[in-house]
């Protein structure tokens, strides 16, 4: 699917999240996942300069370095799209012009590439003038360091402000939006961000597409997620409503011969403006169900069932 504002970026309907690289996946496992993803037609790899600084002993940039070592040992596919982000690396926090420029150079060095295809402002930096950040990203595009700009974790108001400043300063607009969006977290995306994506032609690449693994259906009791690396993310969804959604995913999956995660990603892929959900796999055995979602088109009845069981409760929003 070509991105509306960047048609030369023709992407596979699933983005591979590389946040596990250097965390729950070592270099060899990560390379195997990358090989399998590309072999099945995948071409968008999503990382960030801060992955995975939260792991004891890591310093940040481990994911990019692993992708870089993979690129160095293999022939890069012509259509490969590398997406990275700036603002969370321990040495390059925030979005000042100087920091953006330095962080981009560090990411390019770790990746071993001359250009990053899609470069996101990872988190808003309210302590820095937004115009300075917008100009800094524009300079990266002009210098050929990045091809396109994306925004992640920005409020709708700040997205609009960024776009207005882009036009005012004569620099390229963002082409992509990366919000948190999945069956157990439909808001605030649907009411606040979906109209924004439609208005500006932004491609949406949702992160946490499987809600930290909760939507895989493998967590049925509290004991199931005891000690798992993403325990907090799973635990937050372990409610009566959340379990009802997972039950429907399992029921539909059982009837179709698919995993619950496959069904969850297929639902997300069906949503307006969603170009590709982002999902990660620790091993190639976990990747198969994710890739299957790109070939599954749910029936109107199944989509309606999932829409209804996951409908946000206005009292909680």
The secondary structure category is alpha/beta
Beta-strand content bin: 5-15%
Question: Which percent range fits the helix content?
Answer: 40-55%
Largest sheet, order of strands side by side?
A: 11-10-9-8-5-4-3-12
The SSE order reads: EEEHEHEEEHEHEHEHEHHHEHH
The low-pLDDT segments are none
How is the biggest beta sheet arranged?
Answer: 8 strands, parallel
Overall strand count: 12
- Computed over alpha carbons, the radius of gyration is 19 Å
Instruction: Report the average pLDDT across residues.
Output: 94
Labels describing this entry:
41% helix; alpha/beta; 11 helices; two-stranded antiparallel sheet; eight-stranded parallel sheet; 14% strand; 317 residues; 12 strands
Architecture overview:
- The protein is of the alpha/beta class and 317 residues long.
- The chain has eleven helices and twelve strands.
- It has helices at 27-39, 62-73, 97-111, 130-142, 156-169, 189-200, 231-235, 240-256, 260-269, 284-292, 300-309; strands at 2-3, 6-10, 15-17, 44-46, 81-86, 88-89, 92-93, 116-121, 146-152, 176-178, 203-204, 278-279.
- The chain has an eight-stranded parallel sheet, with helices on one face.
- Strand 3, helix 1 (27-39) and strand 4 form a beta-alpha-beta unit.
- Helix 8 (240-256) runs antiparallel to helix 11 (300-309).
- The longest helix has 17 residues, at 240-256.
- The chain starts with a strand and ends in an 8-residue tail after the last helix.
- The mean pLDDT is 94.
């Amino acid at each position: 699917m070509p991105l509306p504002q960047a048609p030369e970026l023709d992407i596979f309907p699933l983005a591979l999240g590389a946040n596990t690289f250097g965390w729950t996946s070592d270099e060899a496992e990560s390379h195997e996942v990358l090989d399998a993803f590309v072999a099945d037609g995948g071409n968008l790899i999503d990382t960030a300069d801060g992955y995975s600084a939260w792991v004891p002993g890591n310093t940040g940039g481990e994911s990019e370095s692993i992708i870089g070592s993979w690129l160095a040992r293999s022939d890069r596919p012509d259509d490969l799209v590398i997406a990275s982000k700036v603002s969370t690396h321990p040495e390059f926090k925030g979005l000042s012009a100087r920091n953006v420029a330095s962080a981009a150079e560090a990411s390019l060095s770790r990746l071993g590439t001359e250009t990053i295809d899609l470069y996101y402002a990872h988190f808003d930096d309210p302590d820095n003038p937004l115009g300075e950040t917008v100009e800094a990203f524009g300079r990266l595009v002009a210098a050929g360091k990045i091809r396109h700009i994306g925004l992640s974790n920005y409020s709708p108001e700040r997205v609009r402000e960024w776009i207005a400043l882009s036009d005012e300063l004569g620099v390229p607009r963002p082409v992509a939006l990366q919000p948190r969006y999945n069956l157990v977290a439909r808001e605030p995306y649907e009411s606040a961000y979906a109209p924004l994506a439609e208005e500006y032609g932004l491609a949406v690449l949702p992160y946490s597409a499987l809600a930290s693994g909760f939507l895989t259906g493998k967590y049925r009791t509290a004991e199931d997620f005891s000690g798992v690396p993403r325990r907090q993310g799973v635990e937050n969804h372990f409610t009566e409503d959340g379990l009802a959604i997972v039950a429907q995913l399992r029921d539909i999956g059982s009837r179709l011969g698919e995993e619950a995660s496959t069904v969850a990603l297929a639902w997300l892929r069906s949503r307006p403006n969603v170009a590709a959900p982002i999902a990660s796999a620790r091993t190639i055995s976990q990747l198969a169900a994710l890739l299957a979602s790109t070939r599954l088109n749910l029936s109107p009845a199944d989509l309606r069932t999932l829409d209804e069981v996951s409908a946000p409760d206005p009292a909680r929003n």
